[in-house]
Design a protein that fits this description.
2 copies of one chain form a homodimer.
Chain A (H helix, E strand, L loop, with lengths): L2 H16 L7 E3 L6 E4 L4 E11 L11 H18 L3 E12 L4 H18 L2 E10 L4 E11 L14 E5 L4 H13 L15 H8 L5 H8 L4 E6 L4 H12 L2 E5 L7 H10 L3 H7 L6 E5 L4 H12 L3 E8 L5 E4 L5 E3 L9
Parallel strand pairs in A: 4-5, 9-12
Antiparallel strand pairs in A: 1-2, 3-6, 4-6, 7-10, 7-11, 8-10, 9-11, 12-13
Helix pairs in contact in A: 1-3, 2-3, 2-6, 4-5, 4-8, 6-10
Chain lengths: 342, 342
């Protein structure tokens, strides 16, 4: 169905029904000049936004519309998680090119809404406009956090251990493989059996925010700084170091990269270490914690969530800079090389 | 200066300095995963978003970068105003094409920030990404409103008077004239003396939200429904009627169109009535109020702000539909013809 056959307000009516969730805090939802929410006063309000642009963040030839919507919302939930918060309410602005149908637009919203359903929050408004060429999705998400649980990038302390949840590099490996399958002449990628990289593919297509893990970590006084991984470990450790006024040392052999990611990296001729350090969108958490509480904190999170946590380095004095210690014991300055927008 | 010469984080550092405003409620501002705000509990929270897309909402050949930023922020402030609220905090996501320079990007933020300065709120975060072709600006704004002052589109009552602040049609007339000057072959537009359409031009280039007027109206118990004019009077009255479950009657001869707009419309061969009914982005307020409080309410607002208010029609029963009564006394069904995105 063409968008022009139902128009802007017809589209909004349809989308509104798809993304409705009962929520007692919503006084006015979609359809007025602004959404109106009842707030509790004990908590701090979090605000975050992520924008996804076609040809930059996603490719309609690789991802389904539902996956594009899912990914757009996950990025914001991951940001709220990294502050120790609980997602509150989302607005979605979408710029729709002329070649997109009503059904495809609804699939994008189904993806967005699935994340909201799974993590218990509502989409309460937004803006739908036309776009001359590219599909652009802009998500705004509020969140709440008790002041004592607030986590920032700026609170790392010298001698803290640096930790990572789950595994790194998978999302980027999956993306490279999907791209090479799309362009089969470039790489004989189809030679790699599908069941051997399915998990890695899903790290790119269906990323998951570490909301529960983040909330558990935020309650621990020994956890000091936290950030989510959107641009690779090197970049995120760099943000923590700069904003906390400290240095950092990363131990190469401790960086968690899964077996499927390693095998796929080998097949693609990419270094697994590069994927983990500079690959984007794993949405894992990087955090620093007091070394003497290591055992208790890691055990608490792993027992409750089943998510493994790796200790990958330590916080040093600022003047030591940010370094990686290789498996051979060499100390090399670490430079972030995440996706460069410009 | 090329964006690539300073990169994403260099750009964020520069923009951060330009848009800084001291704000005691900001616990964490730009530079973490989310902005963190201290909230008061007595008020409702408002959330709104507007996205501006190049070639759809603006034209870099007609508007300066500063004007584009100004316009993007005004749209959201006007939405918060229309709910009876006070702007709280803004996030800005911007998609930057490769041909835009650091200086031009800073001008966009200067425009955004000027609105924040003038209406007393802060920009506390956002996202900066690259765009394959078009400049896209997405503004997200929170606001606060006391529950007793909340204004929606859904509260109009039969027999209410329908009112409009200021004058209509100017923004659209200014846009059409600017477009025809850009393409001089089409119209001998330059024959029209500049000082005779300067005010109208500024209605398009420097629109102003009616924040103070909206707040005064919201405090009056006799004011029932409110909306801002982004798509012309016909569309906005239609939204109020549908969402309140009422009909409406608009009196053609009462619709306020300024002298400059009328003269420019004549020069351009457009009907001034069409501009007022279907022209976009005047950012005036349309509201309904109890007829018996007319004198007191209009006097209170006009004395305090100097803004004129016109009574342009009345709310009727739903089954009568939405009609316009022409100067000759004819009753014609009114159809909204605002900008069709698709």
């Amino acid at each position: 169905m063409d968008l022009s056959s139902i128009g802007e307000f017809g589209l909004i009516d349809r989308l509104k029904k798809r993304i409705f969730r009962p929520d007692r805090r919503v006084v006015v939802g979609i359809g007025d000049d602004a959404a109106v929410l009842r707030q509790s006063s004990e908590k701090l309000l979090l605000l975050t936004t992520d924008v996804l642009v076609e040809r930059v963040h996603f490719d309609r030839r690789i991802q389904s519309y539902r996956q594009i919507g899912w990914r757009a919302m996950v990025a914001s939930v991951s940001d709220v998680a990294a502050m120790g918060g609980e997602p509150g309410h989302a607005l979605v602005s979408i710029c729709l090119p002329a070649d997109i149908t009503v059904e495809q637009t609804e699939e994008v919203y189904d993806g967005l809404h699935s994340v909201a359903e799974e993590y218990g929050f509502s989409i309460v408004g937004g803006d739908t406009v036309s776009s001359p060429r590219d599909l652009v999705i802009s998500v705004f998400l509020t969140g709440e956090v008790r002041e004592e649980n607030l986590m920032t990038r700026a609170a790392a302390q010298t001698e803290d251990l640096i930790c990572v949840t789950g595994q790194l590099g998978g999302a980027q490996a999956g993306l490279v493989m999907l791209q090479s399958l799309k362009d089969k002449e470039k790489t004989p990628a189809s030679a790699f059996p599908e069941n051997e990289w399915q998990q890695v593919r899903d790290r790119h297509l269906w990323p998951r925010p570490r909301l529960r893990e983040a909330q558990l970590l935020a309650r621990e006084a020994g956890v000091h700084a936290m950030i989510d991984v959107s641009d690779g470990l090197a970049g995120e450790v760099g943000h923590i170091a700069r904003q906390s006024g400290v240095g950092a040392e990363i131990w190469e052999q401790e960086i968690p990269v899964g077996q499927q990611t390693r095998r796929l990296a080998e097949h693609l001729g990419i270094s697994p270490l590069d994927l983990a350090l500079h690959g984007g969108e794993d949405f894992e958490l990087v955090f620093t914690m007091a070394a003497d509480q290591r055992r208790r904190i890691l055990q608490a999170v792993t027992e409750e969530t089943g998510t493994s946590i790796a200790v990958v380095g330590k916080v040093t004095a600022a003047q030591e800079g940010i370094n990686i210690v290789s498996s051979q014991g060499d100390r090399i300055p670490l430079v972030a090389e995440g996706y460069r927008h410009f």
